[in-house]
Specification:
By secondary structure, the protein is mainly alpha-helical. The chain has helices spanning 11-18, 21-29, 51-66, 73-84, 102-110, and strands at 40-41, 47-48. The protein is 49% helix and 4% strand.
Length: 111
């Protein structure tokens, strides 16, 4: 069963994704259209984010919540990749799109 971005994120967040030039290029080249964007799936049919998508999500999060903290989107994207392996539902006890648990997020916020 396909999983769509539209079922996992708000309209505002999806607009933010479309406004990222690299995401726009990737999604356009793969035939995605607004209102009907599919997640990529691995061989086991698990939805995951591309590296371009992870970086865009990180940039959106940084701009909304950490802009005054000096956190770099690349650092958040790398942390998310290590924590969730880019799977939409996370791995093990770390769930969610970014796969970052509360203690790690709190540490990032303090740093």
């Amino acid at each position: 069963q396909l999983v769509y971005w539209d079922s996992k994120v708000s309209v505002e967040d999806l607009d933010g994704m479309w406004s990222q030039p690299d995401v726009l290029k990737e999604w356009t080249n793969s035939g995605e259209r607004r209102g009907n964007v599919r997640f990529s799936h691995d061989a086991k049919k698990r939805p995951y984010l591309s590296r371009v998508e992870v970086k865009a999500v990180a940039e959106i999060i940084i701009s909304r919540h950490f802009s005054s903290r000096g956190v770099k989107p690349e650092a958040l994207a790398a942390l998310a990749e290590v924590c969730s392996m880019r799977f939409v539902h996370g791995v093990r006890s770390r769930t969610g799109l970014m796969g970052i648990d509360y203690p790690t997020a709190a540490w990032l916020s303090r740093s």
